[in-house]
Write a structure and sequence with these properties.
The protein is 60% helix and 5% strand. With 495 residues, the protein is mainly alpha-helical.
Length: 495
């Protein structure tokens, strides 16, 4: 179990620091809580001072009655739980892939394509050769421009379940290297099955990758995942705040809605151009769409091919994605986030509202603002609204974390200490657990086969030096030698 602390430092910067790693005998909520409490108590960090907790959506974590978050809420009513935004987004994307047949089939086929093309060093070498030939042909035809760093040769990256961005990378690579990929698969399919393995699979994949529906879904997934990629990357930043994260979610929803309502014509033209460039047979979009083998008894609707791809695939996929995003990111049902959004400095503090901010302090942070301080906060906010909101130095801010840093740099945090306190409380709310997962992955770099029998304390220390290497560089070698020498007498002279 990895423990990461999120806080705002004296300069107004949001920090997420690796704090400890614990071995737990099981993953039940009570065991996890005991492990966390032991660590915090050891370093004299009172549980009552917790103002946010973030985990994934597993029942042992997010359960309202016996989950880890509910156990901490019993001890600290202001330790508000935030379900990891990055995990929510991944669940929304996975749900779309699992419940829509064309999308599920596409990702299944994408995995088969990558495994086939990168299945051996020989195939990777052949794939690189095919790319070289394709680049030379396109350069001769004037389709590509030369230059430093242009026309690089690469491979098809393998997608992983825990990193949804890797799927987008695979899709982008397949679009860029479509012809070389088809060439390799076709070459494998023409080999002797008694000599080369995977020939039958290659034949089936070649037929599928040259099909119009596969190309259509390939570009549809490219459009959808390209829209959600900025959100996916933004949610994994250490300094991300809850208000800006919700704004990124809202922007993503609007872009997907715009794609659905106004993007069809441009999208289908792009697909048709891709098919013409790569010699892929296109159906007549005005013909009747035929299901199965084409017999009349199998036809249920008298619809055109254009209607099928537009309504049954394009619109249906985007609608399902929007439905999942709305379900997992309900903007209007979380009062804490709605009130916190009043601190958003974008568009010249458009959302600024004194009464909502006073309600935020009074209702959600009663331990940090006594009744008298709430009255003082209201007075501060009136001056804050005339001063900071209209100050030139605060005009181009886009996030609450930038606002906090600017208040410190301009010394206005000293003028409005209660406003600064409220901003810092909101910034401590965790947006995602990506940092914790990233730190947990570090263990595989530290505890390798040659060092597999490390004691827990030594493992913790090594991970600390590896993860927080910027801080570790500030420790001088001489101070380490002095402390080590002072522990006990040594046979060798260290200094």
């Amino acid at each position: 179990m990895v423990l990461v602390l999120r806080y705002v430092d004296s300069n107004g910067y949001v920090q997420e620091r690796f704090f400890d790693i614990q071995r737990v005998k099981n993953t039940c909520a009570l065991t996890l809580k005991e492990g966390i409490v032991d660590v915090l108590n050891h370093y004299n960090l009172p549980i009552e001072n917790i103002r946010g907790q973030g985990y994934d959506g597993a029942n042992n974590m997010s359960g309202k009655w016996n989950g880890l978050q509910s156990l901490f809420l019993e001890d600290c009513k202001q330790a508000y739980y935030v379900h990891c935004f990055a995990h929510r987004l991944q669940l929304a994307l996975v749900k779309t892939a699992e419940n829509l047949g064309p999308v599920w089939k596409f990702f299944s086929m994408l995995t088969s394509i990558v495994n086939l093309v990168t299945g051996s060093s020989q195939r990777i070498a052949d794939f690189h050769s095919a790319q070289e030939d394709d680049i030379n042909e396109r350069l001769a035809a004037g389709e590509l421009e030369t230059g430093k760093g242009a026309n690089q040769i690469g491979t098809l990256p393998r997608a992983t379940d825990t990193r949804w961005s890797s799927h987008f990378n695979s899709v982008c690579s397949l679009i860029d290297k479509f012809d070389p990929t088809c060439t390799i698969i076709e070459n494998i399919s023409m080999n002797d099955p008694n000599v080369t393995c995977g020939v039958s699979q290659a034949q089936s994949i070649f037929e599928e990758i040259r099909d119009f529906k596969f190309v259509f879904v390939l570009h549809l997934i490219y459009e959808i995942m390209g829209t959600t990629e900025i959100l996916c990357q933004g949610l994994q930043k250490k300094t991300q705040d809850i208000v800006n994260a919700m704004a990124l979610v809202s922007n993503t929803k609007r872009l997907l809605t715009k794609l659905r309502e106004d993007g069809w014509r441009h999208f289908i033209e792009t697909v048709c151009l891709f098919c013409a460039t790569h010699n892929i047979d296109m159906p007549n979009m005005e013909d009747r769409y035929m299901v199965g083998t084409g017999h009349s008894c199998q036809q249920y609707d008298n619809i055109t091919v254009d209607h099928h791809y537009h309504i049954d695939i394009f619109n249906a996929t985007i609608d399902f994605q929007l439905k999942e995003l709305n379900r997992r990111f309900p903007e209007d049902t979380i009062e804490l986030l709605v009130l916190s959004s009043c601190l958003d400095p974008r568009e010249f503090f458009k959302s600024f509202n004194i009464e909502n901010l006073c309600t935020l302090a009074k209702k959600f942070y009663p331990l940090d603002f006594i009744p008298q301080e709430v009255h003082t906060l209201r007075s501060e906010l009136r001056h804050y609204g005339e001063d900071v909101v209209n100050h030139p130095s605060f005009k181009n801010l886009s996030t609450v974390s930038e606002l906090c840093r600017q208040l410190v740099e301009t010394n206005k945090a000293e003028i409005y200490p209660l406003v600064d306190r409220l901003i810092r409380l909101v910034l401590t709310l965790p947006v995602s657990t990506a940092t914790a997962k990233r730190y947990f992955s570090t263990m595989s770099c530290v505890k390798i086969a040659l060092r597999n029998k490390m004691e827990e304390e030594f493992l913790r220390d090594c991970m600390m030096l590896n993860i927080e290497n910027v801080l570790a560089r500030n420790v001088s070698i001489d101070s380490i030698i002095d402390e080590f020498s002072a522990l006990k007498d040594r046979k060798a002279k260290l200094k």
